[in-house]
Amino acid sequence: MGACCTCQRGQKLEDKNHHHHNHHHNNHHSYFGENKNNNNGEHKEGEDDYQSIVGRGDLGANVRLCGFSKFVSMYSQQGKKGINQDAMTVWENFGGQKGMFFCGVFDGHGPSGHKVARYVRDSLPSKLSSSNVISANDIRWDAEKDDESNNPIFDAWKDKFIKSFKEMDEELEGDGSIESYCSGTTAVTLVKQGEHLIVGNLGDSRAIICTRDDKNELVAKQLTVDLKPNLPAEYERIKSCEGRVMAMEEEPNIYRVWMPDQDCPGLAMARAFGDFCLKDFGLISVPEVYYRKLTEKDEFIVLASDGLWDVLSNDEVIRIVASARKRSIAARLVVHHAVRAWKYKYPCAKVDDCAVVCLFLKRQKPLLTKSLSEVTELSLNYSEIATSKNYSPNSKIDDGLDTLLNYQVKEEKDPNVATGLNDDHKKSSSRHARYLSRRKSAVNF
Hints:
The chain is of the alpha+beta class. It has helices at 18-26, 113-129, 152-174, 232-240, 306-309, 314-323, 330-345, 372-379, 383-386, 430-434, 436-443, and strands at residues 53-56, 62-64, 67-68, 72-77, 86-92, 101-109, 184-185, 187-193, 196-202, 206-212, 218-222, 244-247, 255-258, 265-267, 273-274, 288-293, 298-304, 354-360. Strands 1, 2, 5, 6, 7, 8, 9, 15 and 16 form a nine-stranded antiparallel sheet that branches. Strands 3-4-18-17-10-11 form a six-stranded antiparallel sheet. Strands 12-13-14 form a three-stranded antiparallel sheet, with helices on one face. A hairpin with a 2-residue loop joins strand 8 (187-193) and strand 9 (196-202). This is Protein phosphatase-2c.
């Protein structure tokens, strides 16, 4: 939980209704057109929400910012902290290849985080699909590989992810129309190409997959690592670059990244697009890239911003999705359960934005025999939390902010937490001086 204590871009999209659909996305209106309902108000089975296709991406891909299709369910809801800073997109027939998908969820933070998230949402897929999309048919190797070792498909996609993320961050830095000195966004993305799944993660959003175990029961497998500043490797990198990693006294479990000589921006993740005030002090835009060879046991994938994972476990999320009577409402069902969980678990905190993308891997068939009410009773009984002896509704809870601007940090005495640096090491970088004017406007926001 937590992020900063501190424009729309659509040139690749051809449809003139792009802005209209984005408006619905940010105000969590219903994404389902009235013409998709039957006389009972239910969505017809097997139909795509063609109204949610906002245009064509590179090489003819169908671009969605919301809604649903036979294999996709998307939903986002604004929290209680202001404008919805989450963004999401799905490109179907990505790279001009039928049945190939790109999915992404972007969680903005800082004064202009919503603009940064949408900027990356609209630009990053084009960078990944530019030039020649990697063709699995053109790559051969001696043995079947179901992991990352000596897998040429993974190696090729990993290089492409890292290059595209680097180009994206450089483009963002050079665009003066968007304040990105103290604003940024995380990104959890995937490309599904046949049986090959490549996941690129930047920040603390998450991807999970629902699969079946040896007993044919549904289980959740986490595909990514939440890249928090207190992870050993992330902490060491930030420290070596003279950044500071500390938790505030009132939220001792949330570690944040601070500049060497200023108590800002207090970023609650170790990697992100933007946030250039910290790019010389350990924050990076290099994604962690993962590979999975899909099998018949795999059912669906869920991408979501940290506002969801703060309150729901991986197992709870797959149970909710699997219990949905219609795929079209699966993502919305997950978000509604997350909002409910926020109110029970953190009544003193502001509900965070939530964005969820569900990608189904097979044609629709029943996954669970239990009804939603039974699942809710078994797995999501939040009333038990409220009566727990360890639960205190009056306790001081973090408001879920990703960035703190000019917060007066008290140095921690905990040996496991990074402390301040010596005065000799408190120096400004060339980027720091170059962005002073942008910082001033951001701090005064």
